Structure formats: structure tokens, C-alpha cells
Fold this protein.
Amino acid sequence: MQEVVNFIDLNLIMVGYLFIVGFTGGLVSGFIGSGGAFVLTPGMMSLGVPGTVAVASNMCHKFPKALVGAIKRYKYGQVDIKLGLVMAASASLGVQIGIKIQQIILEKWGQAGSNLYVSLSFVLILVTVGGYVFYDARKSARRTDTAGEMVSNLARRLQRIQLPPMIHFKTADVRISLWLTLPVGFATGMLAATIAVGGFIGVPGMIYVLGASSLIASATELVIAFVMGLGGSINWALHGMVDIRLTLIILAGSLLGVQLGAIGTTYVKEHMIKIVMGTIMLIVAFSRGFAIPQYLAQLKLIEVEENTIRILSAVSFGIMCLALAVGAVIILAAMWKGRFAAEEGAELPDKGSSLEVVSQES
Amino acid sequence: MSGRSYARRKRPYGKVIGFGMLTAALYAAVYLNAPVVMTYFTKGGVYAVLPIATVFLFSYVHGTFAGSLWSLLGIDAKRTRLQERMEKRPAATRKISRPRPRLHA
């Protein structure tokens, strides 16, 4: 029997809010391959949308946005479809395992335990991976005068392992064993099932483990997001959980944003993708840190006043919105700078750009 | 690539107007008939095809409008070597130039 769900009435403020967040999330997704979902779902819930409807409606906007972004970036020669599909296959398995883990935690420790698990995953993974991405981006930025983006030592070592079947990803210019792509895809799916943003593992995984460039990794992530988003959306739609009105408002903004973000990648130095991604991940991790006391209190592990919890929740959500806004501002500023330099006809001192990467590859 | 080449590029006025009107019509159709739309789109089961097909349609129509709009505003991608390399790639399928078999009576 179908669950009875209350769909909310829309007003102009909600429409404006969803459009703006959709646009900003789209801009970030078009640029770094993922992002936006972590603000949209709690954002919709704060407007009174039931949790499952918020997740379903958000996911249903995610896959067409990823499709449009992927097509746009494919035209720029940045998408490795084969890599995307291989990663999506193992990610789908990761999603299933991630959901199972969530269900076990939910059964054992209830909703508060599940929320605590999600928040701790947010903080641990995003601080570790985001911190490294940010550190590497700063290192790449300093190196731009002498060389383009370097393939990580780990990826070089892994590419030397001749474990059949070996796959050649033409656009990414990577030859690696299929078995070594599986853990990266699997982890992407696991994270997607846990914090709804698999790209925070998928993109760094493709860069540092498989050896793809930032441009190719972020563009290919859109293929993974499309495949996984389509599967998830069909599942939610079968249960009648998609509020198409909400989906279409977010889509209205995000289709504008995702194309602008994709265009932006052709103007900036390649390390900017890592800077934006690292910055967003660290700010989001920081914001989730504020949510942890609430769940610890619900599990009766600590005592916190109701008012304090309300303030911490509001601060957490505010910082999360800030993460998206900061990412968007960095993208627009970098794009503006790159475009200005291009219009001036001056050669960009762009040793780390896609141009340089290609020349190194060829 | 200099800025002058952007200025020379043909602006897609027709595409923006055409797809813009189509986008507006599609949005109006959904929101003016919201009660009916919500009744059928949330039924689940085979009706799941409705929201999925709708977002594909909107992503094509509104996506084309959005892309053309940025182009009209002069915001186009810079041509990179990655793009040139992809365009130079040989097509995956090659036409086989073999004579067709003929019947000899």
C-alpha cells in the first residue's frame, strides 16, 4: 500500500529560494561535477517538505541537470564516457551496500543514531579528503609557472599494476586495471547513499587513485551522477514520492547554472576545480560539526538545552548555504578573470590549464 | 582565443525566443494544472513514467533555452585543445566502401 504523503503548497518565497539554490547548485555541479544536493534536501525540509519527498524531488532534478552538464562538457572534450559508465556500475553496488548499512544503523540506534552516523561521515570524510584536495590545489597553484597538473604518485604506481582486464580510458588517457576502478566507484556509491554527494569521493578518487585530470574527473562525475540519479529517481517515482512542482523549479535554476559552470571550466586554470571542491568540502564538514551535539543529545550521550540545539541547527544550515555561495563566488570570479584575460587577447599564464595538460599528454 | 571572435559569433535570437516561449508554455501547463498533475504524477507504479519523461522533456527544452541564452549574452566557452582533440578524433564507425551484392540472373 502506498504511503500517504503530504505535498506542500507553494508560495513565491519558496519558489525564489529553490530557484536560487538550484542555480547556485547547478553552477557548482557544472564546474566540479557535484554539489548542491547537500543544501537542497535540508533546505526543502526546512520549508516543510517531508524528508522522503525532499530527497526524491531533489534526485529527480539531479539527473537531468547532470545530463545537460555532461553533454555540454562532452562538447568541450572533457568527458570520458567509458570511465563514467565503469564507475557508475560499481557505484550502484556501493549505493546498495550504503543503504543496507543505513538500515542496520536505523534499526539498532534509531533516527538519531542514523543522523549521527551521517554527520560523522560528513565530518571525517570531508575533512580528510577535502583537506587533501585543498592542500594539493594550493600546491598546484604554486606550480603553475613550471608545469601543468601532475599525476599523483599513487595513480602512477596503480597504473603500473598489470592485472587483467586492463582498460584504456581514451579521453582521460588512463590505462588501468578494471579491478582498481571498482573500489573508487564503490566508495562513490557508498558516500552517495550516506551523504547524497558521491562526487566528493568520486572526483578526488578519479584524480588521485586513477590518475585522471581534474577537468576530466569533474566532467566524468556528471555521467556517474546521471546514471545513479536516473536509477534512484525511477525508484522514487515508482513509489509516487516525486513532487514534480519542486523538481521543475530547481531544474529551472540549475539548468542555467550547470551550463554556466561548464562554460567556466574552459576559462580557468585546472587547479581551480580542486580549490572550489576543497573549499566547499571543508566548509560543509565544519557545518556538519554543529549538528553533531543534537544527535548526541538525542542518543542521551550528552545533555544540551533545546534552545542551544535550535541555534546550532540554524548555524549548521547557514554555514552549509555559505559553502555553496563561496563555491559559486570563487567560480564566477575565476571565470570572470579568465574571460577578461581571453578578451584582452593576452596569453594566460596558464600552465596548469587543460591546454597544458593536453600538450603534456600528447 | 581573443574576444573579437566572440563578437563575430552569430547570436541565437531565434532559438532563445522559440525555446523560451516553449519553456514558458511547458511551465505554465504544469503549474496552471498543478492539482491534476500532482494527482497523476504521484500515483506511483506505471505512472512513474510521467515525472521521468517530464524532466527529460524540460531538460531538452529549457536546457536548449538556457544554453542559447548564455550564448546570446556573449558567454560562450573558450576553445581549448581538449575540444580540438576530440573533434579531430576519427569516427568510431567507418563506412565500408564495398560494392553492393547484385543479383545476376
Remarks:
- The mean pLDDT of chain B is 82.
- Chain B touches chain A through 46 residues (CB under 8 Å).
- The two ends of chain B are 62 Å apart (CA to CA).
